[in-house]
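Quick one:
INPUT:
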């Protein structure tokens, strides 16, 4: 399974990111989609799994959930837009971690690409940064990776200058 991961599009989908995702089986979006048109555009491109973010309106919130729990092979993956700063998660994220014990937490919101391990909870945390044009970030970022034998392999990052 090849996954394309992005967050914080804020209504903008860069064609170079879509090209980066060309060979992906699914796209996962960690919130702040921006508009229903953006979500529909992604749905036409690939199978999408998405959560809403703090800027997403009622139309988007009708289509996607606040969080997703996915299971691939032996991996449990939690996707939520705002997680807090590990290991001090916000209340919702903390409760989801304690209840479901995910191996991987995917979040957005900060506009900062960061991949690290929460040793206290034994969770790999992946924040793909921001792939839209709104915010303080200087580069648009996205990630792609494979899930093979319950492991993330071939993780790649794209970094693009903002328009």
């Amino acid at each position: 399974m090849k996954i394309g991961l992005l967050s914080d599009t804020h209504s903008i989908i860069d064609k170079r990111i879509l090209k980066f995702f060309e060979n992906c089986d699914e796209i996962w979006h960690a919130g702040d989609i921006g508009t229903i048109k953006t979500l529909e555009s992604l749905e036409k491109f690939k199978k999408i799994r998405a959560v809403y973010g703090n800027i997403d309106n009622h139309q988007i919130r009708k289509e996607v959930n606040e969080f997703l729990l996915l299971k691939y092979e032996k991996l449990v993956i939690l996707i939520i837009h705002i997680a807090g700063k590990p290991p001090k998660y916000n209340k919702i994220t903390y409760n989801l971690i304690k209840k479901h014990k995910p191996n991987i937490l995917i979040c957005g919101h900060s506009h900062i690409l960061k991949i690290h391990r929460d040793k206290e909870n034994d969770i790999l945390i992946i924040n793909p940064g921001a792939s839209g044009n709104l915010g303080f970030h200087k580069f648009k970022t996205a990630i792609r990776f494979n899930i093979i034998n319950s492991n993330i392999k071939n993780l790649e990052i794209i970094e693009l200058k903002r328009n």
